[in-house]
Design goal:
201 residues, 30% helix, alpha+beta, 9 strands, nine-stranded antiparallel β-sheet
Length: 201
């Protein structure tokens, strides 16, 4: 698979689409508004090698719930840049997976439900719900293997290898995992139409 990926991506000319800077992503989306923006540390950026990133904390209108939104956009994967799976990154920060599955989520503007990764992580007594997926050319991809397949297919057909990693984290309060799951999914439904407009199709 690596050899096929290299041939498809690295050995051909590439079309790099115009992209909208992530800093222009709305600070207010539906009932949610940005409370804080976290600049990417240079050490993290040097490892991630993304062309653009967004790292924000949003709260709902009643300030009864909050959600972290992280987006890493890669204009090309031709020179070794590629999204790092949260399954690999979060354990390095001390978080360990407790549950791991995929969930089908109906969102506005999508012709079919989105299949995305949904897992629970723990750090000592703290737990969080994590939703994440890869977004390429209007396509939502959950599995890393699938992302590699579409990378090759799109490089061969469209001479493109741009992609984005989208990750949402909601802390679990009072051991109420179900409420955190609900909050994460509602936040995803709210931001998804703006996300589609933000990323190249």
């Amino acid at each position: 698979m690596q050899a096929v990926t290299y041939y498809a991506v690295a050995s051909r000319s590439e079309h790099i689409p115009a992209s909208i800077p992530l800093r222009t992503f709305p600070q207010r989306v539906g009932a949610w508004s940005m409370e804080r923006e976290f600049p990417m540390e240079k050490e993290v950026q040097d490892v991630l090698r993304a062309d653009d990133t967004l790292n924000r904390w949003y709260v709902n209108a009643g300030r009864t719930a909050g959600a972290s939104l992280f987006i890493a956009f890669f204009k090309t994967q031709r020179f070794g840049q590629a999204p790092h799976s949260p399954k690999n990154c979060l354990p390095g920060a001390g978080w360990v997976p407790v549950e791991d599955h995929r969930v089908s989520l109906t969102v506005p503007g999508a012709a079919a439900p989105l299949l995305i990764n949904d897992y629970i992580i723990a750090h000592g007594d703290e737990q969080s719900v994590v939703l994440y997926w890869y977004q390429s050319h209007g396509r939502v991809i959950a599995r890393e293997v699938q992302a590699k397949f579409w990378l090759v297919a799109d490089a061969l057909r469209y001479h493109r290898s741009d992609t984005a990693l989208v990750r949402i984290i909601v802390p679990v309060a009072g051991n109420n995992t179900a409420q955190a799951e609900h909050t994460a999914m509602e936040f995803t439904r709210t931001i998804y139409p703006d996300l589609v407009r933000q990323l190249p199709r």
